[in-house]
Design a protein that fits this description.
The complex is a heterotrimer of chains A (406), B (457) and C (544). By secondary structure, chain A is α+β, with helices and mostly antiparallel strands. Chain A folds into 3 domains: 214 residues, Uridine Diphospho-n-acetylenolpyruvylglucosamine Reductase, domain 3 (2-Layer Sandwich), CATH 3.30.465; 100 residues, Alpha-Beta Plaits (2-Layer Sandwich); 80 residues, Alpha-Beta Plaits, CATH 3.30.70. Helices cover 33% and strands 24% of the residues of chain A. Chain A has an 8-stranded antiparallel β-sheet with strand order 14-11-13-12-16-17-15-18. In chain A, a hairpin with a 4-residue loop joins strand 16 and strand 17. In chain A, helix 13 packs antiparallel against helix 14. The longest helix of chain A has 14 residues. Chain A starts with a strand and ends in a 15-residue tail after the last helix. The mean pLDDT of chain A is 94. With 457 residues, chain B is of the alpha/beta class. Among the domains of chain B are: 100 residues, Orthogonal Bundle (Fumarate Reductase Iron-sulfur Protein, Chain B, domain 2); 126 residues, Rossmann fold, CATH 3.40.50.1860. In chain B, 52% of the residues lie in helices and 9% in strands. Chain B is built from 27 helices and 11 strands. In chain B, the strands form 3 sheets. In chain B, strands 1-3-2-4-5 form a 5-stranded mixed β-sheet. Chain B has a 4-stranded parallel β-sheet with strand order 8-7-9-10, sandwiched between helices. Chain B has a two-stranded antiparallel sheet with strand order 6-11. In chain B, helix 25 links the parallel strand 9 and strand 10. Chain C folds into 5 domains: 102 residues, no CATH class; 94 residues, Uridine Diphospho-n-acetylenolpyruvylglucosamine Reductase, domain 2; 118 residues, Uridine Diphospho-n-acetylenolpyruvylglucosamine Reductase, domain 3 (2-Layer Sandwich), CATH 3.30.465; 109 residues, Alpha-Beta Plaits (2-Layer Sandwich); 74 residues, Alpha-Beta Plaits (2-Layer Sandwich). Chain C contains 21 helices and 18 strands. The longest helix of chain C has 20 residues. Chain C is globular and about 65 Å long. Classes of the chains: A alpha+beta (406), B alpha/beta (457), C alpha+beta (544). Chains in contact: A-C, B-C. Chains A and C meet through helix 1, strand 8, helix 7, strand 10 and helix 11 of A and helix 1, helix 3, strand 9, helix 11 and helix 12 of C.
């Protein structure tokens, strides 16, 4: 285990990083460490955890805005929001159960650093869309503060959002400010059983073009659906296609009718009430349908209409189990373990159909050996290197976490 | 917007007026989006905002018009779409009119263009000369290609616009009074116009019939003629003033002499209507005319505007024709009459459809289709495409310019709104719609019996 | 960029800021101790202690000196451009160039060296490649509707206008995306998809004329952003030409990006990173009905409290717009929307959904509003009425031109401070003997005070600009920002160090250097001029 640093203040963090920069010592940045099992492993001489930078520094329910220190546990953020009937709009996904880390341990900084959004992304946007301000320290040990606490802000470049999804390779965030929304009064889920992938995605696309504000649109293949917690759905042995509606009760009721009417050609719909819906979507948020196993877990972004074709193409090379989220725009793909993580096949198929693939779960040795993130085009690669050098010229922050030699 | 004029410059009344107009522009740029030439060229200098800027610079410098400024001002259609869009109320119409005159006086034009402008302003406003010219046009037709090759694009465009067959002479030819047979509800003067009565005499006939049938006496004044718009938009303000004065004199006799009030001056070509409504401004510096001109501007009404205030009752004919109403720019932007003609057509029983991009000009714009054939034909084709998208049986428009322009490219007939109305209320089939008349049937005459007959039956 | 260059730059930047003697002393002792981190840390502290007070300039912002060597070559440059694009695509005569000397911020004017109007991405690539080789600066321009001088040229620059690149390339209703060229106007995007029941969400008030390219450059917002987010939240992919002519594609029709989120960086970069030529956008199914309600109040405080109460109640309307008395009067004169003319403050609150939902929401909103003693509560009666209500609101800036020239501000503030800030704005303008009208997006605290002045009176123009700077400083002081949706441009450039520390600015300027190492794109904007010159200098050093 490398030297563990737990800075409790911004200036402490600056000191640590300044020291490392001077000695060119690689630093691994973690929050709670829940995502250490994802991405390329970092061989750091020093580990900096933001765990001691915790606490909610600002919460204005009437302005729908909150600021929290980066190491604040997500659970603390969410329970504080819940006291005022509010929530994080993008429903951050918890990869812990799928990757062998503890459930519910991630920090708010980690959520934004990895830009992990859940099912509500299609309706409300991703984590990066809600990040409005950030304070952090870059690889030059400079403390900077960008964005702010107001939602509309175009003062200067949008570096704040640029840091979302940078996996701690550009800077260590010490405080994040983000937008929140009120909990909808009620939620309901409409479920169709036994649809093949292509029909299911067609159904989801149809639903998403209707003006009913579907806030979750997923499809689980039958073997995946068999791992659901809901007893009624688990035992059916059929694929599950689900749509979520959220609003005040009378609106949900009316929209549900409209939705079912428009989708009646896809068969009879089952319904989950408010409580069941919370459980069902909570389960998906924890990705418990993809439990931690030796198999590989890939995450592929593509166009909804191409998603079933892409999956069928991969299936020609290997057995697959699939959970489609975001109306088909996101594929969680489980395939058997392989030394090269089947990278060549999956990347080739993805390239043909359009999209990009990220390896989420594999043995550390595999993740160290293959390209975990989507390889970059030459033009973007040049910009990526430039961006890394601008923030972290010595290359000490999470070196190799996203791309080897970066 | 900031302007930069010296006190000496501002002592010139015309410059002071222009300065007041320029000061209102805040350079927000909204006008660019609805300007037909900017939509086509994507060039700021072909947008209202760009032209305002070019004009501002030209006036501030007190310099003769440069070829570049002249080029871009010439390309303005004066459709006034920008005035509908402009939130700050910039009086673009009077600014561009002034700029045209300024350019005419200070700029230089090649002889071909001067000759063409002279030809147009000497011929078109005079029905006899125009009719004669149209008769000659077929002689020029074989030479169109040759003319183009030698750079006489404008002459070629002119010959192509001339109708192959001249319509018959009008039924009612002024001057005179068409007295209503019904109880008289109003008394109006009608502008008989110039080119229109040669190209489509049916429009005046329909107007007179429709009005007379509904209790309106229609006077066509002796001595009145072209409204002056044509020469005005060619930059010849003095010529336009002469035409305007002649009309004011002619109409004033009818307004004063009979001792009976005149309720309105009816114009059935909206391009002319915009100009007559502006006589007050045009003649403001003519001491003998200013007051009378202002009064005449107040009395001026587009024919649809006038009828819109009247209850025409139920139509005599019923039709299922699909009418695409093309809103002439002079009507929708110049006079801000947008919905009335459409409503009249609906009340007359037609099913009216809206043309996409209705705010964009068809490229006719007075003599624009002769002077700027390239842009004009692009706009005509764009408009034609948009009209075809709504698949009408017939197109209605309130301006002879649009009718002439679009009839060369449309595969459905185009008529004046008033011709359709006249037809629906009992007039003859408008010229060109003979094939459609089978889709029109007479509404049965209401029974002469009264309520009491039923009660006592 | 080597670390030492940057450190040098940092130190210089800080000296420029440290004017208070104690701060200078501090800085010296810190430099003696050494360590960039500590120095930086102390600067930030010092800023909190109010040691640093950089007065904004008391005259109009200065523009960078034109590059003589470029001006001397102007004929040759124009010749090259004509060779690249043809005479039809280049405007080089004086009268023509002058038409491009300003955007909607006319206080700054400067004709460019030439104007180029490309038609394709390849045209743009050729132009940029040439400009990079020849060392000629480039100012990208859409429709020229920027209110902050985002497209103001410099004498030694070429304006590249995207107005001819206005086609829709692909609409994909199943995947809910549209791909367009960026010279298309914002409203034309919605027009292209509305027949199928979709719309493109960001709706800046100038949406009739402003181009998508400009929206992307400024990350534009609009009235309906309260619910749907701003431009950056509605874009999926971009095609961009870099300054060296290279064409890069950033993301695509996918919901997240593969590596770093370059799209976030590029959107809102004010045309300083490259020229975006194509974009893939999210389109959203339009709700069946939308209806605004007008709430008139006798004081701006009541209106402000009502806004906070509505949002706090858990209802998120599509839009909450605010107009004060002077603004209502001019907007009514243009749009004839039936605005109440005798109230001090008017809120336009719009909700959408199915008919019965709208009724319920409007009832809930009016119930909340009744707690603040409204003088007028009037829902729109028809679609046509709603259109007029919005037409008036959207044209309110331009309509102000009926009574006066104006200077439009764009600060954002935390909602709770609204009443206080509004009354301070009134005081600031009164001190400067100027009138002010307020039209703004109340739902997200994005203020647009319009300071009225006479552009032909130089003294008034300067007072207006001073009042504007005061107002923006006030916005930052209460926890807000300088600009919510218009961008920094030239207008707010010299106020940037009120909101940002030297290291904050350095972080941003370094990103600029990655995309545009020679600082040729959209010169003179965003960063305070001294900082820009240092940035250019260090870039030049590096190149040498």
């Amino acid at each position: 285990m490398s030297d563990l640093q737990r800075p409790g203040a911004d200036w402490e963090l600056q000191f640590v990083i300044a020291g490392c920069a001077e000695k060119r010592m690689p630093v691994e940045i973690v929050g709670s460490g829940s995502k250490r099992g994802i991405g390329r492993p970092v061989d750091g001489a020093v580990t900096i955890t933001t765990a001691s930078l915790r606490g909610i520094s600002l919460y204005e329910p009437n302005e729908l805005v909150m600021s929290a220190r980066a190491g604040t546990p997500l659970s603390q953020v969410e329970s504080e929001l819940a006291t005022r009937g509010q929530m994080l709009p993008f429903e951050p996904i918890d990869l812990g159960p799928a990757t062998g880390a503890a459930h519910g341990s991630q920090t708010i900084g980690g959520v934004f650093a990895t830009n992990m959004s859940g099912a509500r992304r299609i309706q409300c946007g991703a984590a990066r869309d809600h990040l409005i301000g950030v304070k952090g320290v870059n690889g030059r040990a400079e403390l900077f503060q960008l964005g702010g606490r107001v939602m509309k802000n175009v003062t200067g470049y949008d570096v704040t959002r640029g840091l979302a999804g940078s996996w701690g390779t550009l800077a260590v965030m010490t405080e994040v400010t983000f937008k929140v929304i009120p909990w909808p009064e009620t939620a309901a889920t409409v479920i169709y059983l036994g649809l093949p992938d292509d029909l299911a995605i067609e159904l989801l696309s149809t639903a998403l073009t209707l003006p009913v504000e579907v806030s979750g649109a997923i499809h689980l293949q039958a073997p995946v659906a068999a791992r659901l917690g809901h007893p009624g759905l688990r035992i059916m042995g059929k694929s599950v296609t689900a749509l979520r509606l959220e609003n005040f009760s009378s609106a949900v009721a009316g929209r549900k009718q409209h939705l079912k009417e428009m989708l009646k050609v896809y068969g009879k719909a089952l319904e989950l009430d408010h409580r069941e819906s919370l459980e069902f979507w909570g389960e998906l948020r924890r990705l418990s349908v993809m439990p931690n196993r030796p198999s590989l877990l890939w995450r592929i972004s593509t166009k909804p209409t191409t998603a079933p074709k892409l999956v069928a193409a991969i299936k020609r090379y290997m057995p697959v189990e699939v959970y489609y989220d975001w109306g088909g725009a996101l594929i969680w793909l489980e395939v058997p373990a392989a030394d090269d993580a089947s990278t060549a096949e999956i990347r080739r198929v993805t390239a043909i159909h359009g999209g990009h693939a990220t390896l989420i779960r594999a043995e550390p040795a595999v993740r160290a050996a293959v390209e975990v993130f989507q390889p970059l085009d030459p033009g973007l690669e040049r910009l990526t290197r430039g961006l890394k050098a601008a923030f972290d010229p010595a290359g000490i922050l999470n070196p190799g976490r996203m791309y080897a030699n970066l | 917007m900031q302007t930069n004029f010296s006190q000496k410059q501002l002592s010139n009344e015309r410059i002071a007026e222009a300065e007041a107009i320029l000061r209102r522009c805040v350079h927000c740029g909204l006008c660019t989006a609805t300007c037909p030439t900017y939509v086509l060229t994507g060039d700021e200098r072909d947008s209202p905002r760009g032209r305002i800027y070019l004009i501002k610079d030209m006036l501030e410098d007190s310099a003769p018009a440069s070829p570049e400024v002249q080029h871009h001002v010439d390309r303005c259609l004066s459709c006034l779409s920008c005035m509908s869009t402009c939130p700050s109320g910039v009086d673009y119409m009077h600014l561009i009119d002034f700029a045209r005159e300024y350019i005419e006086q200070t700029g230089t034009r090649p002889w071909k263009e001067r000759a063409m402008r002279r030809l147009l302003s000497e011929v078109v406003p005079h029905p006899d000369r125009f009719r004669f010219a149209l008769k000659l046009a077929p002689l020029g037709r074989p030479w169109v290609k040759l003319l183009r090759r030698f750079g006489f694009d404008q002459a070629a465009a002119m010959i192509e616009l001339a109708p192959a067959v001249l319509p018959p002479s009008p039924k009612y030819e002024g001057p005179g009074v068409a007295a209503t047979e019904d109880e008289r509800r109003a008394r109006v003067i009608m502008l008989a116009g110039c080119a229109q009565q040669v190209l489509r005499p049916g429009i005046n006939d329909s107007t007179i019939r429709l009005l007379a049938r509904h209790g309106v006496d229609v006077i066509v004044s002796a001595g009145a003629g072209c409204c002056g718009a044509l020469t005005y938009h060619l930059g010849d303000e003095a010529g336009a003033i002469e035409f305007a004065k002649r009309n004011v004199d002619a109409w004033w006799k009818d307004i004063e002499n009979d001792g009976e009030p005149v309720d309105a001056i009816i114009v059935n070509a909206s391009g002319c209507g915009t100009t007559v409504k502006d006589y007050g401004h045009l003649l403001r510096n003519e001491p003998d005319y200013a007051d009378r001109a202002a009064r005449i501007s107040e009395l001026a009404r587009d024919v649809s505007e006038f009828i819109g205030k009247y209850d025409l009752g139920a139509p005599r004919r019923w039709s299922s024709l699909r009418v695409a109403y093309h809103s002439a720019c002079s009507l929708q932007h110049g006079q801000q009459i947008k919905e009335v003609p459409r409503e009249l057509l609906v009340k007359a029983g037609f099913s009216v459809v809206n043309i996409p991009e209705g705010h964009i000009c068809c490229g006719s714009a007075g003599t624009y289709n002769i002077m700027q054939p390239e842009i004009s034909s692009q706009l005509r084709d764009r408009k034609t495409k948009n009209i075809k998208r709504v698949k009408p049986d017939v197109v209605a428009a309130g301006n002879i310019g649009c009718i002439t322009q679009l009839s060369t490219s449309l595969d459905v007939p185009i008529v004046h709104t008033v011709e359709l109305l006249d037809w629906a209320f009992g007039g003859p089939v408008p010229l060109g719609l003979e094939d459609l008349s089978k889709f029109v049937s007479d509404v049965p005459e209401p029974s002469k019996r009264r309520v009491n007959d039923f009660i006592h039956a | 960029m080597p670390a030492n260059t940057c450190n040098r730059r940092m130190t210089v930047t800080i000296r420029y800021r440290l004017e208070h003697p104690i701060a200078v002393l501090l800085s010296k002792s810190m430099t003696a101790i050494g360590g960039a981190a500590i120095l930086n840390f102390c600067t930030r502290r010092a800023a909190h202690l109010n040691f640093l007070k950089l007065e904004p300039p008391m005259t109009l912002s200065r523009m960078p000196e034109p590059d003589r060597t470029v001006l001397d070559r102007s004929e040759a440059i124009i010749g090259e451009l004509v060779a690249l694009l043809g005479a039809d695509g280049i405007i080089s005569r004086e009268e023509g160039r002058r038409a491009f000397e300003a955007d909607a911020l006319t206080a700054y004017r400067q004709p460019p060296l030439a104007v180029a109007l490309p038609r394709t991405t390849e045209d743009v690539s050729k132009l940029l490649k040439y400009c990079r080789q020849a060392g000629v600066k480039v100012v990208p321009r859409g429709a020229g509707t920027s209110l902050c001088g985002g497209a103001t040229p410099t004498a030694d620059s070429i304006v590249i206008g995207t107005s001819r690149m206005n086609s829709v390339l692909e609409t994909d209703f199943v995947n809910r995306t549209i791909t367009v060229q960026t010279g298309i106007t914002n409203l034309a995007i919605t027009d292209a998809v509305s027949a199928e029941g979709f719309f493109y969400a960001p709706d800046p008030s100038s949406q009739l004329a402003c181009t998508l390219g400009g929206n992307l450059a400024m990350n534009s917002g609009g009235a309906h952003c309260l619910k749907y987010g701003v431009t950056t939240n509605n874009v999926l992919g971009l095609k961009m030409v870099l300054m060296d002519g290279e064409i890069v594609e950033i993301n695509g029709p996918y919901l997240d990006s593969g590596g770093y989120d370059f799209m976030a960086l590029v959107i809102g970069s004010e045309g300083q990173f490259g020229i975006i030529t194509e974009a893939t956008l999210k389109i959203i199914p339009r709700m069946p009905f939308a209806r605004p309600v007008m709430l008139g109040f006798s004081s701006c405080e009541a209106a402000g409290q009502c806004v906070a109460a509505i949002i706090g109640s858990g209802i998120i309307p599509v839009a909450i717009e605010y107009m004060d008395k002077p603004a209502i009067a001019v907007a009514e004169a243009f749009a004839k929307a039936g605005y109440p003319l005798d109230v001090e403050a008017l809120l336009i609150v719009e909700v959408e959904g199915f008919e019965d939902e709208i009724d319920r929401l409007l009832r809930a909103i009016t119930d909340i509003a009744r707690n603040f003693d409204p003088q007028v509560v009037e829902a729109s009666t028809s679609t046509e009425h709603s259109d007029r209500i919005w037409k008036g609101r959207k044209a309110a800036f331009g309509a102000m031109g009926r009574i006066s020239d104006y200077y439009c501000m764009d600060g954002t503030i935390p909602l709770a401070r609204l009443p206080e800030v509004l009354s301070r704005i009134g005081e600031i303008c009164a001190e400067k003997r100027l009138k002010v009208a307020n039209v703004f997006h109340a739902g997200d605290g994005n203020l647009h005070p319009l300071i009225l002045f006479n552009a032909n009176d130089p003294d008034e123009a300067i007072r207006a600009e001073q009042a504007g700077a005061e107002i923006l400083k006030l916005c930052v002081a209460v926890g807000g920002c300088l600009t919510g949706e218009h961008g920094v441009g030239i207008e707010k450039r010299d106020l940037m160090d009120i909101q940002f520390s030297p290291s904050d600015l350095a972080v941003q300027m370094r990103i600029k250097s990655i995309f545009d190492p020679h600082w040729l794109l959209n010169p003179g904007k965003v960063f305070p001029l001294p900082a820009q010159e240092l940035g250019e200098q260090s870039a030049a050093d590096e190149a040498a």
